[in-house]
Amino acid sequence: MKYKVNQEKCRQCKMCLRSKCPAIKFKDKIIINIEKCTGCGICYKLCPVNAIEMIDDNKY
Ligand code: SF4
């Protein structure tokens, strides 16, 4: 399991950055580096608008 940001839902509130996750960066928009994502789900729980979505293991 990995996570990605749904850019249409993201409001750039940066709550997910509070997780201090090394896979999440803000550069014009919030980006989750799929290589670094361990699937822990902390950012997923922090996002107030459900903009962080799970990606099926077979789809990345
Ligand atoms: S917490 Fe959700 S809405 Fe806020 S910046 Fe992160 S992905 Fe976007």
Describe the structure.
This protein is mostly beta strands. The chain has one domain (2-59): Alpha-Beta Plaits (2-Layer Sandwich). The chain contains one helix and four strands. The strands form two sheets. It has a two-stranded antiparallel sheet with strand order 1-4. It has a two-stranded antiparallel sheet with strand order 2-3. It is globular, with a radius of gyration of 10 Å. Bound molecules: iron/sulfur cluster. The site of iron/sulfur cluster (SF4) has 14 residues, from loops.
Pick out its properties.
60 residues; mainly beta; Alpha-Beta Plaits; two-stranded antiparallel ribbon; two-stranded antiparallel sheet; 1 helix; 27% strand; binds iron/sulfur cluster
Question: What is the structure about, briefly put?
Answer:
The chain is mainly beta and 60 residues long. It is built from one helix and four strands; from the N terminus they run βββαβ. The chain has one domain (2-59): Alpha-Beta Plaits.
SSE map:
Layout: E1 2-5, E2 24-27, E3 29-32, H1 42-46, E4 52-55
Antiparallel strand pairs: 1-4, 2-3
Bound molecules: iron/sulfur cluster.
Iron/sulfur cluster (SF4) binds next to loops.
CATH class: Alpha Beta
Number of strands: 4
Helix content: under 10%
CATH topology: Alpha-Beta Plaits
Reported CATH architecture: 2-Layer Sandwich
Backbone structural class: mainly beta
Rg, alpha carbons:
10 Å
Major sheet details: 2 strands, antiparallel
> Which regions are unreliable across 5 or more consecutive residues at pLDDT < 50?
none
